[in-house]
Design a protein that fits this description.
Two copies of one chain form a homodimer. Chain A is built from 14 helices and twelve strands. By secondary structure, the first copy, chain A, is an alpha/beta fold. The first copy, chain A, has three domains: 22-67, Orthogonal Bundle (434 Repressor (Amino-terminal Domain)), CATH 1.10.260.40; 80-183 and 317-344, Rossmann fold; 185-314, Rossmann fold, CATH 3.40.50.2300. Chain A has a six-stranded parallel sheet with strand order 2-1-3-4-5-11, covered by helices on one side. A six-stranded mixed sheet of chain A has the order 7-6-8-9-10-12, sandwiched between helices. In chain A, helix 6 (94-108) links the parallel strand 1 (84-89) and strand 2 (114-119). In chain A, helix 2 crosses helix 4 (53-66), helix 9 (185-198) runs parallel beside helix 10 (214-229) and helix 11 (246-257) packs across helix 12. At the A-B interface, helix 5, helix 6, strand 2, helix 7 and helix 12 of A face helix 4, helix 5, strand 2, helix 6 and helix 7 of B. Chain A binds a DNA duplex through helix 3 and helix 5.
Amino acid sequence: MNLRKKPAAAPQIKAASVDPKRKKSTINDIARMANVSKKTVSRVINDSPFVKEETRLKINTIIRELGFAPDPQARGLAFRRSFLIGMIYDNPTAQYVVNMQQGILDAMRGTSFELVIRPCDRAVPTFLADMRHFIERQKLFGVILTPSVSEDDRLVKLLHEIDCPYVRIAAVSLDTAATMVVTHDVSGAADAARHLADLGHKLIAHISGPPTFRSAHERRRGFAEGLSERGLKLARQYDREAGYTFESGIAAATELLSLKPRPTAIFTGNDEMAAGVYKAARDLGLEIPRDLSVVGFDDSPVASRMWPLLTSVRLPIRDMGRMAAEKLFHRRTEKRAQNDDATDVIPTLVVRESTAKPPAA
Amino acid sequence: MNLRKKPAAAPQIKAASVDPKRKKSTINDIARMANVSKKTVSRVINDSPFVKEETRLKINTIIRELGFAPDPQARGLAFRRSFLIGMIYDNPTAQYVVNMQQGILDAMRGTSFELVIRPCDRAVPTFLADMRHFIERQKLFGVILTPSVSEDDRLVKLLHEIDCPYVRIAAVSLDTAATMVVTHDVSGAADAARHLADLGHKLIAHISGPPTFRSAHERRRGFAEGLSERGLKLARQYDREAGYTFESGIAAATELLSLKPRPTAIFTGNDEMAAGVYKAARDLGLEIPRDLSVVGFDDSPVASRMWPLLTSVRLPIRDMGRMAAEKLFHRRTEKRAQNDDATDVIPTLVVRESTAKPPAA
DNA sequence: CTGAAAGCGCTTACAG
DNA sequence: CTGAAAGCGCTTACAG
């Protein structure tokens, strides 16, 4: 810590407000200058309706002139709740995490909240104890949960027990509308299925994510539904489970592509696995999209760095973060009514170069 | 002291400690039970040497039994400084940001600190005011700066003015050793140069990052130095400036590859631009590495998703985050001596498939 | 080595 | 609509 102490500069309040080392003003200073009690200043800060308009105006003017901002720590101590929002996540995709953080920060701009981040691992034995410790100790105002930790019922139960507000982001509604941002992965996956069917594919395979992810189920389900709309079926032997990773995508695709008849199209549960399909196809001498069409999910940056550019299903991650944070803030305000509605997000299919008509049989 | 709370087995403190809604114990409870003043408990919490060993033991036992953890907000209010570490960054690469966050969190595990994140844009007019507001309002314990915002002298000047401890991560030492984690990009870039020279390349080009990034200069300089060690020179027409983005990489590479004689190798300031080189090469019908060798910098995940796998220079980002945070913590302890040493990070060249002998002339 | 008092900057609970 | 008192859970400054 930098311990250099400079003698306090200007005692006068006037010149002091330009001096970077001036003592920051407090609610007491404002109260004194406005000739009211600090409690009244507190009322203004907290938007209490029980303040005469004239008083409020006077106080607000002084606050603005002094550039006063209430100390969140002091406020938190008295409120018995901090102004910290926690983001709890276990999504391994960096771009997802960063976009989500950005979205939450978008919503927090101009508020007195700050974002504290908390990656976690649901598999460690101390998971729940860690989360509880984190939340209670910091007296978090609330938390935002992203998949797959957002699907963890033990955690949500804990949140209720310790009375911590939360918003969950998930592929399907798992909770009351007021706590959910629902991404409807089913719909995006169905788009992918229709796209492939409409190109003329019949031998269509799917590589799904791990069963511990709800999104893996939803994407698979949506894909199957989309196919059946077009009179097609997801055949058992073309239906593989993998782990949302590049390597697991290679393995699953290698098996799939050695089948007879070989599928002419593969839809993967995320882009990482699609990259694995690319690798497996190349190793087998297959050309995309001539010999094989591929559709991913996420529209991550790799999707547009791959060659050929990957057709993928896009979710507006940043917007989702913003909406989740807004929901959390509004849960304590009069806007409750409108926030009791579910927040729905519909994915869109981004068609690029990795899909084409099936090879002539 | 170690403040991690273990869900300790409930002692005589009755069933309350199992009840999730129990009132959390405070320093007063501990004091009462230990038959000492709260000030003495405070001394134990803060590792003061002026406590009798016996007293310390007794108090620590009770603390452990009750699973007591001091309230960071109350502590912060009294200390006039919070237990929040800020990470301030403007690096656009998601993987970089996430790895850095992870590293900082690694160092914070088991402490009472939390990480608050703050992306920023040095170009907006309110940049300095925003940063100041952020730091002063939250009374941050300290901040960690990553490139390129770590190179901003105005910000560092502000940090001194408001007495905020900081650690800077940068490609070259810009400040006193105690505040720096230096990544020595020069060394990694020189490795890339030697690697290409040793393969037999003579017509070697470089695409550098934007001049606003110190790393862009250092990587270019290191590359030129590595070449000159091998008796080669970075020719003017083979030396291009771009923007660290995929698109700018495409543009620069397209120009470079239309030159006569065409360069047989390109070193790019980061992997994103290397991906751009891949694209440009493909569009021109050139095959990597047969017709063109490519080396990137960052060893980001795309490097091993591209085809052929990209040879790239790797920096241990997560470790760098951890080291930066440790430096920040230790600046207030007796370990000062050892932390006054600069922290040096040496990049390593990861050779993959994108480099080979130059085509026979 | 230990403690009683005052205070950090706010809000709650109560009173008017 | 407004205020005086007490308190949130800690630490500092002082005293012994």
